[in-house]
Amino acid sequence: MSRFLPWSSLAALPLLLHAPGAAATMLEFGCITGNSATDCTIGETQLSVEVVDFAPGQVQFIFRNTGPAASSIADVYFDDGTLLGIASLSGSAGVSFSQGASPPNLPGWNEIDPPFQTTAGFLADSNSPVAANGVNPGEWLIVLFNLDNNGQFSDVVSELL
Question: What are the contacts of 129-132 at 24+ separation with CB within 8 A?
Answer without folding.
Answer: 130/72, 130/74, 131/72, 131/74, 132/72, 132/94
